[in-house]
């Protein structure tokens, strides 16, 4: 007697399965809770007052503490992984990220992505997939939108890609687009002693470099908790057994861990930068592994007055994270090459009180 085979599992998409213009509605919606917020704080230690204290947030005009912007980013990102990057080699970069509305505990987030570009690599074993992903709340209001591109394996090296297009992406989000997720705040309610920093928007200058001083060592357990928290099931982060056959021979730390650690470290020097308004670009320059220690420094690339706003202003920052090297000398390039300690080069806008 033979037993009929059942194929109900999903091995994930490979590069040749994507087509330009395809719209993907991702499973499953995720209701954000205060438990998510507490666990995010436990993993990275962010100390920004608006996200830490309901009372502080209410004193400047919020209904309560909004969810950390990068937690929202990771939740939206995690929804896309089973459909976009389950078979990824690496996530390569980000662009045109805009935080459109605050998210509060109790909100339910869902994600939709559109494939906007495809480029097969010359080895014909992999290709790059470009997607624009949008996170929505339970009222179908967009809360976050961003583009990312990821290198994905092919299941069949001889399979032809379903189109080829490298999208033209903006180098930076325009300043006039930055204020949407920040309600008008009461600057007179902002308490520098409670926020942990006396430095507001006007105290920073273009070209200024800030060593954030502190370092955080990443443990394997933290990486696993983080990817599970975001429901990010990418094999390169989850499956240590399969990772033995990769060129590194072990699991990679999820790139979002690096972003969140660097952002948390930036509190020392940018403690009043309470809101991430946009992601202009970013790339994971080199891998991070458990046992490595992350440091960070920032450079002020630009300053912007937001149209119609006298309460807040924006700084465009380059956030550079390194592994196993403190940043007193602001490591970045070593001649023509990126300094070997650099693991993240992240260009983003933040909002501060004026």
From TrEMBL:
Q: Which SUPFAM superfamilies match?
A: Thioesterase/thiol ester dehydrase-isomerase
In Swiss-Prot or TrEMBL terms, this protein is called MaoC family dehydratase
**What top-level branch of life does the organism fall under?**
Bacteria
Q: Which organism is it from?
A: Camelimonas abortus
Q: Which InterPro entries match?
A: HotDog_dom_sf, MC_hydratase, MCH/BMMD, Thiol_ester_hydratase_Rv0216
Instruction: Read off the PANTHER family from this record.
Output: BETA-METHYLMALYL-COA DEHYDRATASE, MONOAMINE OXIDASE-RELATED
């Amino acid at each position: 007697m033979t037993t009929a085979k059942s194929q109900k599992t999903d091995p994930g998409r490979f590069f040749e399965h994507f087509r330009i213009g395809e719209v993907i509605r991702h499973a499953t919606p995720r209701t954000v809770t205060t438990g998510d917020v507490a666990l995010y704080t436990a993993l990275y230690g962010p100390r920004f007052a608006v996200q830490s204290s309901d009372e502080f947030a209410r004193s400047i005009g919020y209904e309560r503490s909004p969810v950390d912007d990068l937690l929202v980013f990771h939740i939206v990102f995690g929804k896309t992984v089973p459909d976009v990057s389950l078979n990824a080699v690496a996530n390569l970069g980000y662009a045109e990220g805009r935080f459109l509305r605050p998210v509060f505990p109790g909100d339910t987030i869902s994600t939709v992505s559109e494939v906007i570009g495809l480029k097969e690599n010359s080895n014909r074993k992999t290709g790059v997939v470009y997607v624009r992903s949008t996170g929505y709340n339970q009222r179908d209001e967009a809360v976050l939108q961003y583009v990312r591109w990821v290198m994905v394996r092919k299941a069949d090296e001889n399979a032809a890609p379903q189109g080829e297009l490298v999208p033209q992406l903006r180098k930076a989000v325009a300043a006039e687009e930055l204020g949407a997720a920040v309600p008008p705040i009461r600057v007179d309610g902002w308490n520098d002693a409670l926020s942990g920093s006396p430095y507001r928007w006007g105290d920073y200058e273009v070209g200024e470099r800030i060593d954030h001083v502190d370092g955080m060592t990443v443990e394997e357990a933290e990486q696993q908790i983080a990817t599970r928290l975001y429901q990010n099931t990418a094999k390169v982060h989850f499956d240590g057994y399969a990772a033995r056959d990769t060129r590194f021979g072990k699991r990679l730390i999820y790139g979002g861990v690096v972003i969140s650690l660097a952002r948390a470290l930036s509190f020392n020097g940018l403690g009043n930068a309470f809101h991430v308004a946009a992601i202009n670009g970013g790339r994971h320059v080199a891998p991070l592994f458990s046992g490595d220690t992350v440091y960070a420094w920032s450079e002020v690339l630009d300053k912007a007055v937001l149209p119609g706003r006298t309460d807040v202003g924006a700084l465009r920052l380059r956030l550079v994270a390194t592994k196993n090297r403190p940043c007193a000398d602001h490591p970045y390039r070593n001649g023509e090459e990126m300094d070997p300690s650099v693991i993240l080069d992240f260009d983003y806008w933040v909002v501060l009180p004026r």
